[in-house]
Design brief:
Layout: H1 2-7, H2 10-25, H3 31-51, H4 54-65, H5 73-77, E1 81-85, E2 89-90, E3 100-101, H6 103-118, E4 123-127, H7 135-148, E5 156-159, H8 165-175, E6 184-189, H9 193-203, E7 209-214, H10 232-253
Parallel strand pairs: 1-4, 1-6, 4-5, 6-7
Antiparallel strand pairs: 2-3
Helix pairs in contact: 2-3, 4-10, 8-9, 9-10
Length: 255
């Protein structure tokens, strides 16, 4: 699964195009290979440029985040259980004395706790460890954070086994067997929500899932000439969006 995640990163594909193009252009004697190499180089550079500019990045992000709007109070009130999906943890080491929630996890827990306080749900479930090795330490990062935000420890259930979105659904279905009356509010980043709903609806009745997206990163902008200047931040957003799109295709047709 880790290998698949790496391959789903567009940077890997771009590098393969560039490396292949460079290798092919080294042999001047083979005209066809030489021309093919230049085409691959041009293609790789073009993709890299497009993914690094705001109009393309924002378009990809908007496509995903616009599928689920911020939840209404009515939708929140229907949830029997609030589930917050892990978005990664920075492990201890170096100058970091203890594991810390990543930006995505911090946003999900902070906003998820606010949602939990607004609804009638009796249980706050914190799901997943990501790709971490320290299972207990990683699982407890979200729990400690939620408690610091005012959630009583006896209302928190930690699911410390799942390492990705697919495994979230498998492990949570064991904890909360699907029924027609059970309503589960899923809290995750807005960009990640379409793939999450897609997978949860394979394990739970479609109407049992209440999407509760948080951490929107799209914002409408008036584009200027600076918008066409590539940036690493913009490339990162594009990579995140493409990762989600490829994941949706993978789980829809191949799993």
């Amino acid at each position: 699964m880790t290998l698949l995640r790496a391959v789903a990163n567009p940077i890997v594909g771009i590098l393969l195009l560039l490396i292949t193009g460079i290798l092919l252009t080294r042999d001047l004697r083979r005209q066809k290979l030489f021309k093919s190499g230049w085409y691959l180089l041009a293609l790789g550079i073009s993709i890299l440029f497009l993914l690094s500019i705001s109009p393309v990045s924002d378009g990809l992000v908007y496509f995903l985040e616009s599928q689920y709007q911020p939840p209404s109070k009515e939708a929140i009130s229907k949830a029997d259980i609030i589930v917050i999906l892990n978005g990664g943890v920075s492990p201890s080491g170096g100058f970091r004395k203890k594991p810390e929630a990543s930006g995505a996890t911090y946003s999900r827990v902070f906003n998820g706790v606010e949602i939990f306080k607004q609804c009638n749900a009796k249980i706050l479930a914190l799901s997943g460890i990501g790709d971490q090795k320290d299972i207990e330490g990683t699982a407890n990062v979200m729990k400690d954070f939620a408690i610091s935000l005012g959630v009583p420890a006896d209302k928190i259930i930690v699911e410390p086994k799942s390492r990705n979105t697919f495994e979230h659904t498998v492990e949570l279905a064991k904890l909360f067997p699907p029924t027609k009356d059970l309503k589960i509010g899923i809290v995750t980043s807005a960009l990640h929500m379409p793939r999450s709903v897609q997978l949860f609806q394979k394990k739970f009745p479609p109407d049992a899932i209440i999407p509760l997206p948080v951490g929107y990163i799209y914002s409408p902008l008036e584009y200027e000439i600076e918008s066409l200047i590539p940036s690493s931040h913009t490339l990162s957003k594009s990579s995140y969006a493409i990762h989600e799109l490829l994941g949706m295709i993978w789980y829809k047709y191949l799993v």
